[in-house]
């Protein structure tokens, strides 16, 4: 890719300052989104996907704070720090003001779709009324033009009888139809980038498939870029062009989607793929990832995945790898944060393999439920801790 990215994120760090300590929810992630791409953010519950998404719009709430890195959108600075005269870090003067974020960026340039439409839709107003008002406010249209536009958008996202459904309330819509309304709302201002945080996770598989098809179709027609947050490698396979795999606040692997699936370079990605149901495998053949992801408040030394990694060696307990380019595919880098690759050259080959089992279980053991969520189904269980 030779053109400039639409969004450039470099070394982004977001932390929560809690009574029990600092939660390093997002710990130095770097990635780009180019025009017209669907870029996946995938990882288990607690990996930092939602916090990363909210950081991009500067919507992290106290006790959370973006503490480092750069976020650039179309060459404008959404976030950046500089060193002040006394040596401490302060906001860069080029950084967009809060008012500019509200008036120019959120909704208009970068829109968000959440998992639960009922959080974004007000139950006491009609669906059409809410969509119309949103369009009216954001696009400076008259009420009647905005209404026509709202009905057009409802039709655009595949809602049958849009004139009639316009008058209905959110509870009269099925989960899938409500999610379509949110997609309509996200598209209403024709943003260049839509951040979708697990918008299909609560839907059954058939409806999920329909929504993914719709997004694929809309993406092509509007040429909108997407950041698609999910814990589901199946969803990634279906709609993403490129993928970032997150583990404990870090991006451990980044590659175009086919490359990630067929030339997997990080043991965590491999584990995620092995835990994914596939038509050519029976349920018995699924291998849940060993152990559970540790707390972001006190991450393991060295490579954060080493306590659960089948390939871990002694060196992995000491060396903390940052993602490096290990290959290229379709003009994009394939980055991986695993010292078994030659580019790291820290003596992995000579290092002693960690004894299986001794270090492979988290302290306190694991429960069946935790194993279940390690296999990729655990979004709902931690919703209470989300910053949204
Ligand atoms: N308001 C908060 N206060 C303290 N810690 C928080 C807060 N919000 C999130 N965290 C922590 O930040 C880390 C990342 O959380 P995040 O919600 O981004 O994970 P996620 O990858 O989106 O997971 P899920 O798939 O469950 O949505 C977790 O350790 C979480 O506990
Ligand atoms: Ni989340």
TrEMBL record:
The answer on whether this UniProt entry bears the keyword Membrane reads yes
Q: Where is the ABC transporter domain?
A: 7-273
What Pfam families does the annotation carry?
Answer: ABC_tran, oligo_HPY
- Give the main EC class: translocase
- Per the UniProt entry, the Enzyme Commission number(s) are 7.2.2.11
Q: What is this protein called?
A: Nickel import system ATP-binding protein NikD
NCBIfam families named among the record's database cross-references: oligo_HPY
Task: Name the CDD domains on file.
Answer: ABC_NikE_OppD_transporters (cd03257)
| Record organism | Natronorubrum sulfidifaciens JCM 14089
Instruction: Kindly list the places in or outside the cell where this protein is found, as annotated in its UniProt entry.
Output: Cell membrane
Q: Does the keyword Nucleotide-binding apply?
A: yes
Q: Which UniProt keywords apply?
A: ATP-binding, Cell membrane, Ion transport, Membrane, Nucleotide-binding, Translocase, Transport
GO MF entries: ABC-type nickel transporter activity; ATP binding; ATP hydrolysis activity
Q: How does it assemble?
A: The complex is composed of two ATP-binding proteins (NikD and NikE), two transmembrane proteins (NikB and NikC) and a solute-binding protein (NikA).
PANTHER family the UniProt entry points to: NICKEL ABC TRANSPORTER, ATP-BINDING PROTEIN, OLIGOPEPTIDE TRANSPORT ATP-BINDING PROTEIN APPD
- GO cellular component assignments: plasma membrane
Q: Which residues form a coiled coil?
A: none
Tell me one GO biological process term: peptide transport
Under catalytic activity, the entry for this protein gives: Ni(2+)(out) + ATP + H2O = Ni(2+)(in) + ADP + phosphate + H(+)
Gene3D superfamilies (alphabetical): P-loop containing nucleotide triphosphate hydrolases
**Region annotation Disordered: where it falls in the sequence:** 350-388
Name the membrane topology term: Peripheral membrane protein
Question: InterPro entries per the record?
Answer: AAA+_ATPase, ABC_Ni/Peptide_Import, ABC_transporter-like_ATP-bd, ABC_transporter-like_CS, Oligopep_ABC_C, P-loop_NTPase
SMART domains, alphabetized: AAA (SM00382)
């Amino acid at each position: 890719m030779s053109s400039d990215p639409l969004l450039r994120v470099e070394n982004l760090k977001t932390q929560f300052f809690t009574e029990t300590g600092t939660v390093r929810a997002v710990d130095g992630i770097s990635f780009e989104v180019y025009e017209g791409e669907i870029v996946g953010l995938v990882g288990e519950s607690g990996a930092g996907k939602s916090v990363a998404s909210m950081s991009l719009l500067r919507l992290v709430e106290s006790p959370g704070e973006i503490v480092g890195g750069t976020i650039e959108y179309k060459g404008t600075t959404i976030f950046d720090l500089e060193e002040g005269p006394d040596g401490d870090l302060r906001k860069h003067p080029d950084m967009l003001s809060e008012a500019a974020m509200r008036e120019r960026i959120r909704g208009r340039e970068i829109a968000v779709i959440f998992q639960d439409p009922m959080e974004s839709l007000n139950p006491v107003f009609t669906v059409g009324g809410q969509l119309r008002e949103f369009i009216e406010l954001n696009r400076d249209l008259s009420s009647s033009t905005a209404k026509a536009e709202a009905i057009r958008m409802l039709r655009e996202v595949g809602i049958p009888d849009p004139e009639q459904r316009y008058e209905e309330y959110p509870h009269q819509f099925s989960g899938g139809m409500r999610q379509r309304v949110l997609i309509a709302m996200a598209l209403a201002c024709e943003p260049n980038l839509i951040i979708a945080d697990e918008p299909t996770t609560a839907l059954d598989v058939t409806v999920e498939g329909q929504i993914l098809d719709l997004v694929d179709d809309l993406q092509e027609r509007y040429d909108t870029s997407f950041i698609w947050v999910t814990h589901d490698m199946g969803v990634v396979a279906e709609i993403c062009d490129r993928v970032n795999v997150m583990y404990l606040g870090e991006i451990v692997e980044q590659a175009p989607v086919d490359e990630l699936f067929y030339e997997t370079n990080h043991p965590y990605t491999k584990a995620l793929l092995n835990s994914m149901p596939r038509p050519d495998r029976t349920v018995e053949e699924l291998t849940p990832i060993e152990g559970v992801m540790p707390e972001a408040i006190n991450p393991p030394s060295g490579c954060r995945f080493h306590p659960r990694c089948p390939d871990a060696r002694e060196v992995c307990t000491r060396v903390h790898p940052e993602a490096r380019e290990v290959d290229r595919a379709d003009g994009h880098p394939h980055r991986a944060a695993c010292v078994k690759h030659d580019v790291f050259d820290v003596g992995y080959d000579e290092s002693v393999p960690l004894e299986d089992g001794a270090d492979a279980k988290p302290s306190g053991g694991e429960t069946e439920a935790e194993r279940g969520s390690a296999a990729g189904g655990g979004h709902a269980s931690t919703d209470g801790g989300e910053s949204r």
